[in-house]
Amino acid sequence: MKLQYQLNIAFTTLLVVILSVTGITVYSLLLNLLIQDEQRQLEDKGELLVKVLTERFPNPNHIDQMNDVLKEQDLQLLVYDGLQHNLLFSSLPRPVVEGFNEQNYFQKNERNLWEFNKNKYVISRILIYPQNELELILLTPLTDLPIVQRDFITRLLIVFIVGAGIAALLSYFLTKKLVTPLSQLKRQLKKIEKRQFNNIEVVKASGEMKEVAKSVYDMARELEQYMTSQQTFFQNASHELKTPLMTIQGYAEGIRDDVFSDEERDKGYEVMVKEVSRLKKIINEMILLAKLDSEQSEYNPEYVRIGKVIEQVIDRTLPLATDHHVEIQSHIDQTIKLYIDEEKFMRALLNVVTNGIRYSQSIVNITVQKDKQVIRINIEDDGEGVPEHMLPYIFYRFVKGKHGDTGLGLAISRAIVQQSHGNITVQTSSTLGGAKFVLTFPSNEL
User: Fold this and answer.
1) Does domain 207-294 have CATH number 1.10.287.130?
2) Cα three-residue angle 243-246-251, rounded to 5 degrees
3) The model's pTM
4) What residues does each domain of the chain span?
5) Is residue 208's pLDDT more than 80?
């Protein structure tokens, strides 16, 4: 069954339940009010009649004269002797009195409503002579009750019909407002399933549905970007692998066919060894990236003093820095700790610092800053900086500048930093004039 029909049934059922409970409650209240009103009128008449009787007959010895007075009253009444349990006077038909007596109504003082032969009577009991427990019982039939019941049921049915119509209209518009975005989302998801990312449309909705629609749209864009990056990755990977393979193949065929001189053959061997080393490095970095992306690599975080890691990075990059005549400066608070995998995080820093050394003119500066919520590691150089057109793609795979190596180093750094629950960005606002890489982590140290 469609969701819209389910919601319509739910709304209508809820309305019927509410109206039923309301109808039963109102009916009970009306019945009680009717009984209370009749009983109040009986009490007023009874008190007035008792006052007249007690004034004319101060003691109960004149019961016969009292009965004569009661016969003159146009009322349905009884006189009951509570001590003797005897009915002294009745203006009601004998079968009715006998029916009341069989149900023992005379001795059940707490009942305010008597019933005989499907007829209900409201009663009021007033003591004439309290010391003798002589009671005057006045009765009035609830002849209006069936009329009230029929009128109430008729009105309730009208309310039911009108309410059901209103509920159907409300449920139609409300469910349409709710279900329409769901139907549109379903169509958009079908497009995502068929990889028709260019045809994805923003679904107009409100509330939580708006958030879901936005999430679906963002997911589509992320999937499109991911698939595009994967295609680009395979294209770039094939290109990067093809180049050294072609070089190796060219020299190998030349050596096999003996087309090189001895000097050229030795040079060919050297080039082949370099290209194999480069090929091996690319493949190893691709494997590492695949492991990091699939979270299959083992990650063993612990609280590590960040100053210790940066010192090791500086020691390992010192030969490259010396070769490029670059000085590495650092300003670090030795007490700051990060919850990281030391070996992997060192690899991430090595890639960023090495990248800075390649593009720097004379200085690479490493600083660590900390506030209450964030720890920042800034790595700056005084080189030419990152070109504006490369800023959005600097961390993509096989994206490299003129001094780049494999184009995978920064992509690996980003994957490791994200695995460490951090974030890495690049800025062009370095105080040294070149690129500025900023690594941020939550300040959750011990």
Assistant:
1) yes
2) 130
3) 0.47
4) 3-148, 207-294, 302-442
5) no
